[in-house]
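User: Please predict the structure of the protein below. I'd like the answer in structure-token form so I can feed it into my own downstream comparison script.

Assistant: Understood. Taking the following sequence of 747 residues as input:
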Amino acid sequence: MKLNFLLLLFPVLVWTQNLDLNQLDSLQKSGKDIKVGLVLSGGGAKGLAHVGVLKIIEEAGIRIDYIGGTSMGAIVGGLYASGYTPHQLDSIFKTTNFGTLIQDDLPRGSKSFNVRKDSERYALKLPFDDFQIKFPSGVSKGQNIYNLYAQLLSHVKSKDFSQLPIPFLCVATNVETGEEVIIEQGNMATALSASGAIPTLFSPVYIDGMMLIDGGILNNFPVEEVRAKGMDIIIAVDVQDDLREKKNLKSGLEILTQVNNFRTIRTAEQKSKKTDVYIKPDIKEFSVLSFDQGGEIIYNGKIAAKDKIESLQKIAEVQNGTLTRHPISVPNSMTIGDIKIVGNENFPRNYITGKLKVKSFEKTSFKALNAGLNNLSATGSFEKINYTLSENGNYQDLTLRVYESEQNTQLKLGVHYDELYKTSFLANLTQKSLFFINDVASLDLIIGDNLRYNLNYYIDKGRFWSIGFSSRFNQFEDDVNFEFIQQNIGSQNALNLNQVRLENNDFTNQIFAETFLTKDFKFGLGAEYKFLEAKTETFIEDPEVNEAETIIEKDNLFSTFGYLRIDTLDDKFYPSSGYLFSGQLNVYFPLFDDYSEFAIAKGEIGYAQPLFNKVSGYIGSELGFRTGNEDLAALNFFLGGFGNHTINNFRHFLGYDFFTLSADSYIKGIVQLDFNFYKKNHLLLTANYANVEDDLFSNGNWLTTPNFSGYGVGLGSQTIIGPIDLKYSYSPETNESIWFVSLGYWF
């Protein structure tokens, strides 16, 4: 009886050990076609070791008959199951910028003008519905990740994963029920996104009404699930974290990660005994986010698999034939047929297609499609946008599955310092769908050394004419030369003054309509009311004057205006490619104050181009002039200082302090070299030249050698609060040096 029991238990005992050669011989003699299953665990960036293991498995000649994976194991395993070779996977992962993908760092070119302005203004954005601060469900929506998977898997036509070149399953976790979900069919890109949706890093993924996150929470090593598919031999690759020693548990995050790993690590120890070839690469020195060390991780996977090469070769020997694989050609374009949109309840089709900018029955690149998807995502109106392509004759029908965001209110914060506005703190309240489903209302309140506000309301009509209203109050103070005051008020008082404190107030209101010829090209028309006031402390030596201040100028101005802007620069603050054109014309009418009609025209053009490795160049030019006889000093062009955000006709010019140069017309040129020496840090060499003179263009002096020049050397860094710049500047005309400091986004 005991002997019979042991005989029944023998197969179980065999499979709890490493590869049993006797059992392997028995399977071979039976004539059975031995099936091999591959199990790949999750582990974030550590999962890149799977690619190295796959290289050795193929070199050994093994035919994989089924693959099961979780998280990064699902991603690598799913791509391999769909037909990609290990060498292709190596190339894909080494050339992919995972930092950009994970952060949902949408390219500037995929954003609309308004979204660019928003992303280049605020350091922190938080959901604020019902006036309660909330935190997003994940740092990243995962849109960039999904776009990559969808492109790589566009050749997969079947929704049944068992019909792939290698049958496949992956594991996710249902957040609502706390149960594991085995995914074996559906949209494969969505399945991989769900299996790899690491909590807090990525937002949950929705499949068939289920709210899914990383499968590694419950089952990071689906050995039993793959064995149940009739596999005779299981090869398993384990890249999970080990428990850390107390000396490596310093922070709350490290302790929380350790606690979360208790279950999966202990379960993995048990599951490893149920495998036949257990491979555990040495990846202790890497973290789940060490994607920048992908080459080393892949190499360590190869080393670990080579340690098992004898077992792998013996498995290959007993298999009947190998799997024939042909490299997948990664598609770059498709010809889209019909476009179907699913899930849009509040946003009409025209709004979505207007942002997508993809046309039916035309050849479209995946780059253009991804840019359109990013443009939709950048609006903030959608949590996710998934898509599928289905064959329809010579075309591929595009089906968009949009998940509309339920978040309509945001609280946005910013902080800034510069030498004109000084210290500034920004709090913004943005409300979407205030009156219409496609409108946005935004209010900036800025406190600090200078109180300011910005109010904007915009009705986004997509490809049609959009309508907007804006109102702002802007003020700043600065020390200016007394000559500047005399020039603008005509004072002849012989006072012993070098500088006075000038306060500038601006109250501007606009209504406008604009349309977009492309996402980078907009044209608009509008009307503007502007109140300008410049004043300083009283300096007139007259006993009858009892005022605390002198009004230098006070103007109530009305104008109509038109503008044209083209912007393809890849970055506003440190551009390395693209071009810029901006032109605006204001025509002023005496609606409020008594002045004759006049006009102000101004324009800017710039071009950025990579020159060498990590070195790019920028060349640009600006000009502005006023026509008419009105002598309105407040609307002169003022050059000097440094800043990325200016109002009215104030323009920065290195080598001179703020307001040093002033006239009713100017022309300026700039040349800059940018050495991006380390990650997001830049060394900047700048030269700018200008002619600043009244009636500059009518007297022909704009063609003469520049009268003013300045040179600068600066360090710039892109940080979480925005750009940080430190610049040293010098002008040979004044033989003076000036330092400029700017911290954070300008607003």
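That's the full token string. Residues 1-17, 489-498 have pLDDT under 50 and may be disordered.
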